[in-house]
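On clarity, I found the account of how folds are encoded harder to follow than it need be. Since the whole study asks how a given chain folds, the encoding of that fold should be made plain. For illustration, here is how one protein appears when written out as sequence plus structure tokens:
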Amino acid sequence: MSHLYVVRFGDEPEIDPPPEDEEDGTDHKTTYAHFGLTYYRACVLEHQVVNMLAFSKLLEAEAEAKKLLNDPWDEHFKETLGRLVRRFTQQAEGDQELIDDLAEAVRLRNHLAHAFWRERAEDFCSDAGRADMIAFLEQARELFIRVDEQLTQLGHAQRERAGITQELIDQHYQTMLARAEARDES
């Protein structure tokens, strides 16, 4: 059985880092908060690419639905973001700006995951260095948000063709929310 993974819902609230402890906003906690928010947006983008590929696979398999035995989300979540984007760009219908933005998003995401803290260790030791780190993270987060929004727009048409209505998404979200709230109560 296929599962619809909802990463966010409708107009999600703006998430801002906590108020700065220091006047210039370059304290350690704020730097960590910016990294967390930026990496969160990279993960949201990764989920969007998986959704785009999964919807595409579902649409391609519509005529051969009986042959589609594997959950397309599980299959795609086993791959790296770079491989996912390469597969997706083959279907991107010549939108070079989107292809370029996705390539930059993969580069930035990999940098965050594998090199950011190592390469910025010295920067982290000073207010000016942390300010540079935060500026970098804000720019990266803006890219992840912009690319995610582009994919959301493309995905809207795919979801409609697959018969996945906003009502169905809303119902699924409410079910997920109820399960999460039930965990808090127990």
